[in-house]
Amino acid sequence: MYFGVFLNVLVIGWVNLALMSILEVFFNIPAHEQLWYVGGAMLLVVAYSGLSGLLGVAFTDVVQFVIAMIGSIILAVIVLNSDRIGSMDSLKANLPEGTLRFFPKVGAETSGSVLALGAGSFLAFIGFQ
User: What are the backbone dihedrals phi and psi of residue 103, each rounded to the nearest 5 degrees, phi first?
Assistant: First the structure.
């Protein structure tokens, strides 16, 4: 019941809010029209999920994964070749020390290379679970 209702409703709301933010920032769509676009996207997903069944949803997830990976690789190449970054070596030189370390340090430092979790964040995470 917890994962099937409460958590899924929270995640779906979170994803819809993200779509609304993307519509506003990238396409300058007013807030009162964003709900129509989000509703249309939800109806489209319900239609193809309902008509295709579980196997169709699995195939769709594979296709969406391939599209997302191709898009991510293209974006990475564009960013690395941009004037602000230059190359992979230039990117590594400008990152804080330890950012690309496989096993980051755990502690209370505020740099990006240290995993730190305050007591309030820990309790919120555990309480939510």
Answer: -110, 95
pLDDT, tens digit (0-9, with 9 covering 90-100), for 27-84: 899 988 999 999 999 998 888 888 888 888 888 889 889 999 999 999 899 988 888 8
Distance CA 105, CA 20 (A): 36
> Is residue 96 within 8 Å of residue 113, measured between CB atoms?
yes
CB 22 within 8 A of CB 29: no
Domain segments of the chain: what residues?
A: 2-94, 101-129
Query: What's the pLDDT score for residue 102?
Result: 73
Amino acid identity, position 97: E
C-alpha angle 52/53/59, rounded to 5°? Answer: 70
